[in-house]
Amino acid sequence: MADPGSNMTRGFMTRAGAYLTLFALLVWGVNAVYHRQVLSKYILARTDRAFAQCRGGVEVLFLGDSHAQHGLSTLDIPNSFNFSSQAEHYALNYYKLKSVLAGGPGRLRTVVLPVELHSFAARTLETHYFRDPWYWRRHVDYVEAARMIGDASLAGRMIAACFPFLGNGMDFFHPVDPDKLTPEVRGFVQNRDDFSLRPDRAAVARDRAAGQLSGTNHFDDRLAAYFKRILDLAAHAGLEVILVRMPVTRAYFDEARRFIPSVEGYYETVGGMLAPYDNIVTLDYQASFFGEDGMFWDSDHLNAAGAEYLTLSLWADTLERSLAALPDEAARGRRRGDIAALRFTISELDQRRRYGREAMQIGEMYRAGRKEAAMALAQAAFERGNHDGDILSMMLASAAESGNGTLGTALADAVKTSPIPDKVAFAGGRIVALGLTVDLWTTDGNPAYLAVAAPEDRPDRHEFWLSCDASGDALPITATIDGGGRQVRHTFREPSRVRITLPEVPSGVSRLFVVRADKTWVPPGGKDTRRLGVRIVPVEAGGGPS
Amino acid sequence: MAFNSLHFLIFFSVVALAYFSLPHRHRWVLLLGASYYFYMSWKAEYAVLLLFSTAVPWAAALAMDRTDSRGARRLLLGLGIAVGLGLLSAFKYLNFVSDSLRVILAAWSISLDLPYLRVLLPVGISFYTFHTLSYIIDVYRGQLRPERHFGIFAAGVAFFPPLVAGPIERPRNLLPQFRTPHRPDERRIADGLWFMLWGFFLKIVIADRLAGYVDAVYNDAAGFSGLPLLAATYLYSYQIYCDFAGYSLIAIGAARVLGFSLMENFRRPYSAASAAEFWRRWHISLSSWLRDYLYIPLGGNRRGTGRRCLNLFVVFFICGLWHGAGWTFITWGVLHSLYLIGGVVTGPLRAKAAGRLGLSRLPRLHGALKVLITFHLATFAWIFFRANTMDDAVHVATHLFSWRTPLFSDFPPVFSNPADLGIALGAILVMEAVHFLQEKGMLREMLAGKPLWITWAASYGAVFAILLFGVFRKTPFIYFQF
Q1: I need a surface site. Which of A381, A411, B187, B323 has the fewest CB within 10 A?
Q2: Among the ranges given (B9-23, B256-270, B304-318, B436-450), the one the predictor scored with the smallest mean pLDDT
C-alpha cells in the first residue's frame, strides 16, 4: 500500500474478504432457493424435465416457438416430443437441437420445425434474444451467440442469467399454485379457447402481425445463418427435417401481407437455402384454416382442435411421402394401413367441423326466435347425418314439446352414439343424460334431457335420486320430470333428496324425459358461481355417473 | 456508464483499488484518466468539449492572476463566462430559442430558416459549466487562488462522481482536496459505501419502480383524469426525489470512499415548512450556487421587497431554464418563484392569520400544516416538470379533481399489481423512517460501536433488499438530461 501509516490494515483486508465471501455464499443460497421454489415450476423447466425422462424414446421432435408449442400435438404422433417454447427463434432452436444431439441422436429421426412469415424477422431475434436466460444458459453458447448476433452487453446479461432472483423478490411471497400451472403433455400445450367467438378478431390480427413484422428487417441474415446451422446439424445427425408453414387465420395473413407484399418471394428465398439438402420436406398448411377461426385461440395460434387436425394431417402427409422409401411391399402395406387410419380420423374431424359450423348457424337462428325455420333446418341436417350437440338439443326439445316423448329410433341412436361433450351415460348406456353439469345438476333454468332406452325383450323402469341443496330464500324449488304421458313433480322446501320412479318404458322403445327446475340458486361460499337447479342421479348407478 | 450498472461497479472497484495503490503524487493522473473514461463511455467525442470547457477557464484564471488591470480581469472574466454559457446555450438552448422564435414569427406569417442543432445534449454540461463558472468567478473575486497545475484542475472539473449530475461542487472546496493525501481509512470507506448503498436503494428500489406508474400515466396524460393523475403526480414527487437524491448519495459515497468530501445535496426536502426552506433542502448545491453567484450579486434581499421579489423571479426563471430548454421547466421555475414571492409578501398576513386561528399556540400542528402545504405546492409544481408538453401539463393540472366513477376504473394496467405497488409504498415508508432516524441522529448511534455481526447483518439486509426488490432495467437518472 502506498500509505503504510493508514489504518487499511491486514485486519481490514481480512474482514473485507470475509464479508465478500459470506456475501457470495448468501447470493448462492438465495439463488438456489429461487431456482427450487420458483423457476423449477415454470413450464420451460417442466418441459426440460419431461424431455429428460423420455429422451431415449423420442423419435419425432417438434422445435419452434409458441406456434409449434400450441399447434403440434404429441397426442397424435407416437413417440413425439414438443420441445418448443414461447418466442423461441432459430438461434435458440439451434442451440436446443445441439443440446439434444449432444449425446447422439438416439432413436430420434425427425425434426419438425415451423417456417413462417415472422421466422426470419429481426425483431424476433432482438426482442427475444435473451428471454429467460436462467433457462437458456443450459443450452446456449452465449459467447458464440453474442459474436454472431452482435451483442455488446453480454456480461450484464450473463449476470441476469446466473442470478435470476435479482429484482424478483416478490416471487418468494407468491407460492406457485400447482393447480394453476400450465399443463403440458410431452411439451405440447393445449389451449381450448375459440378465436371465432371473439368480437375483436380483426384488431387482434392487426396487432399481432404488426407486433411481429412492422418496421423490421423480414429476412435477418443472423437468423438465416442459424437456420442453416439447424439444417446442417440435422443433416450431420442423419435426421429428416420437416419444415411446416403453420396455419394462420386469413385476417392475420392479410395483415402480414401488408408488411411482406411478396409472400411467395419470401418463401422462394427460404427455398433457395434448402437446395443443398436432401433430408428436408416442406409442408404448407398456411392457408388450410382460412375461414375457420374456430381452429385458433388467437389470430395465429392453433387451439387444441386445430392442433389435432394439423398434426394428423402433417403425420399422414409425412408417412405418405416416405412410402416409396420403404424396403418391401409388406412394410408399404402396413404403412398404407396407418395412413388410411389417419385419413379416416381426419375425415371424421372434417365432418365434425362441417357439422359444428352448420349446427352453430342453426342454433343462432333458433336463439334469435326463428324457431320454426331453425327446426326445419335442424331436421334436414339431422337426416343428413349431422348429429352435433346443438342439433340434437333442438331435436330433443322438439320431441319433448310435440309428442308423448317417444324418441324415434334414429334420434335415440344418435343421442346414444354421438360424441356430445356434455353427455353422461348410465346403466350401460341405456340412460343418457344431456344438458346436466358434470356433477349432474340442471343449470341456468334450462331443461335437461334423459333418454331412456328399454331393451327389446322387456319393459324398463328406473329409479332416481332427485335432490336439491338450496336453502333460505331460494326455496321452495319445484322439480318436474315430464315424459311417457306423465309428470313426476316434487317441491323442495328444505335441502333434501327424494327417491322417484320414472314411468315405465315399453320394451324396444326409447323415451325422452325432460327435467326442469322452476328456480335457480347459487351455492354459498362464492367459489362455485353456477346457477343450479336440481340434481338427478340414477339409483342403480350408485348415486354417480358410470 | 450509469451508476446503476454493472459497468460502473467494476469501474469504481478498479479505480478505488488502483487509487490507494498509487503514490499520492500520481493519483490525479488516475482520477483524470478514469473520469475521462467515465465521461467518454456516453459519447467519446464530447470529451473534446469537456476539455475545451476546462482549458478556457483555467487559462483565463491564470491570465487574470498575472494582471492587475481591473479592465483586463473583467475582460477575462467575461471571456470565461461567455465561453461556458456560450457552449451551454448552443447545445442546450439554441433549438429551444429557434423553435420558440419560429412559432412567434409564424403568427406574423414570417418564415425564417433558423439554426437547428441535430446533436445529443452532452451529458452533464449544465453541471460542469456551473462548476467552471464558479471557479472563474471565485478567482475574479479573489476568493480562490488559480490552480496552476492543469492536470489537477482538469481532474477537478471532470471528477467522475459528481460529473454528470452533481452535486455542483465548488472548486474552492474540491481542488484543495486533490492536493491532500488521502489515506485509505476504513471508517470513511465504510461510510462511503453506506452512502452508495442508500443511494442505490432510493434509485433502484423506489425511483425506478415508481417510474413505471408515473410513465404509464404521464406518457398518455390526456387519456386520464382524476385519481390516476393525482396518484401519478404524488408518486412522481417521490420518484424525482429518490432518483436525484439517489444519484447524489452515490456520488458523495463514491467520492468519500476515495477520500473526497462533497457537499450535501438533499436534506429531507419534503419536510420543509416553506418554499424558502424547501430550496434550502432541495438540490442544495444548485440553490446555493444560484444564491451565491446570481441572487446576491443581483442585490438579494438588501434592496427592498420589490427588488427582492424581482430577484427571486429572475433567479427561479433561470433555475427553470437551467433544468431544461422548454416552457414546462420555465413554468416550473416561475411557479417556485411565485411561491417564494408569495412567502415574502404574505409573511406578516400569514402570521396574523395563524394567531387568529390559534395555530401559533399549537406549534406542532402549525408546523405540520406548513409542511403539508409546502409538500403540495412542490408536488403541484412537479406536474410541469414531468409533463412531456405544456398541453399535457395544463391537462393534468386542470383535471386532477375531475374524478370519474367508479373511482378506480381507469387506472392504467400497471397499477393492477398490488404487490408491486406495495413494494414501492413500503420502500417509501422505509425511506421516511430512515430519514427520521437520520435527522434525529439515531441511525448513526444505532450502528456505531455495535458488534461486527450487527453492522454486517444491516448491510446484508440493505444489499439484499436492493437485489431482491430493485428494478434492474438500467433506467437512466432523470437529472442526466439536464
Answers
A1: B187
A2: B436-450
B423–chain A Cβ distance below 8 A for any pair: yes
Locate B9 and state its grid cell.
461497479
Task: Determine, for residues A169 and B186 on separate chains, whether the beta-carbon distance falls below 8 Å.
Answer: no
Determine contact, residues B117/B123, Cβ cutoff 8 Å. no
Burial of B147 (0-12, 13-18, 19+ CB in 10 A): buried
Q: Which residue has the cell 468567478?
A: B137
Task: Scan for cell 436534506, then name that residue.
Answer: B267
Kind plus residue range of the DSSP H or E element containing A518: none
What grid cell was written down for A487?
309428470
**Alpha-carbon distance A188 to nearest alpha carbon in chain B (angstroms):** 30
Residue A544: pLDDT band with limits 50, 70, 90: very low
Q: What distance in Å separates the CA atoms of residue A361 and residue B11, rounded to the nearest whole number?
A: 69
Predicted pLDDT of residue B1: 79
Q: Decide: pTM greater than 0.90.
A: no
Report phi then psi at A37, rounded to 5.
Answer: -85, -30
Q: How far is B6 from chain A (nearest CA, A)?
A: 7
Nearest residue of A to residue B460 by CA position? A23
- Across residues A160-164, what is the average pLDDT? 82
Q: Which residues contact A331 (CB under 8 A, 6 or more apart)?
A: none
- pLDDT over threshold 90, residue B269: yes
Buried b (16+ CB within 10 A) or exposed e, A380-406: ebbeeebbbbbbbbbbbbbbbeeeebb
Q: Is B418 on the interface with A (CB under 8 A)?
A: no
Residues A158-163, mean pLDDT to the nearest whole number:
78
- pLDDT at position A437: 81
Residue keyed to cell 345438476? A441
- Mean pLDDT for the stretch of residues A91-112: 92
Closest residue to B22, CB basis, from A2, A19, A160: A2
For residue range A197-221, what is the model confidence (pLDDT) as tens digits? Answer: 888 899 999 999 999 998 888 899 9
Question: CA nearest A497: which of A470, A465, A473?
Answer: A465
φ, ψ of residue B180 to 5 degrees: the values are -90, 125
| A403 closest CA partner among A509, A519, A538 | A509
By the 10 Å C-beta count (0-12 exposed, 13-18 middle, 19+ buried), B77 is classed as buried
Q: Average pLDDT for residues A495-502, to the nearest whole number?
A: 89
- How far does the CA of residue A78 sit from the closest CA of chain B (Å)? 43
- pLDDT tens per residue across span A177-195: 666 677 888 999 988 888 9
Which pLDDT value is given to residue B165?
A: 82
Helix (H, G, I), strand (E, B) or coil at A425: strand
Q: What ipTM goes with this model?
A: 0.78
Look at residue B74 in the predicted model and tell me its pLDDT: 92
Selected catalytic residue, list B283, B323, B336, B395: B323
Q: According to the model, what pLDDT value does residue A207 have? A: 92
Residue B456 in contact with partner chain A when CB distance is under 8 A: yes
Is the Cβ pair A160, B472 closer than 8 Å? Answer: yes
- B464 at interface of A, judged by CB pairs closer than 8 A: yes
Q: Do A23 and B468 touch (CB under 8 A)?
A: no
Residues of B in contact with A30 (CB under 8 A): 464, 467-468
Distance from CA of B330 to the nearest CA of A (A): 37
Nearest residue in A to B462, CA atom: A23
Please tell me which residue of chain B has the smallest CA distance to A165. B468
Closest residue of A to B4, CA-based?
A156
pLDDT single digits (tens) A232-285: 999 999 999 999 999 999 999 999 999 998 889 999 999 999 989 988 999 999
Query: Of the candidates A8, A168, A170, which has its C-beta nearest B186's C-beta?
Result: A8
d(C-alpha B251, C-alpha B262), whole Å: 8
Q: Alpha-carbon distance B234 to B228, whole Å?
A: 10
Q: Is B26 a catalytic residue?
A: no
